[in-house]
User: What shape does this take?
Amino acid sequence: MKPSGVEWIGDVPEHWEVKRLAFVGKFSKGGGISRSELTENGLPAILYGDIYTKYNIQVKKVINSIATETAAKAVAITKGTILF
Assistant: This one.
């Protein structure tokens, strides 16, 4: 173990490195889908505002849908994607 350099974190494994998040994965915005674009049927969609209010720590079932045309301007996510 080695000191992390951050008091509240404490020690971390010796082999850990400090890296910018930009080097760990892909970051993107969702495309700004609004509530007015939701449809009864269509492709599943997660609205940014719903992440904290309607989903807990994990999305088990998507509750909103959007039209195919709306989805074309959105960012697709897949199982295992981290949303924050």
The CA atoms of residues 44 and 74 lie 11 Å apart. The chain has a mean pLDDT of 89.
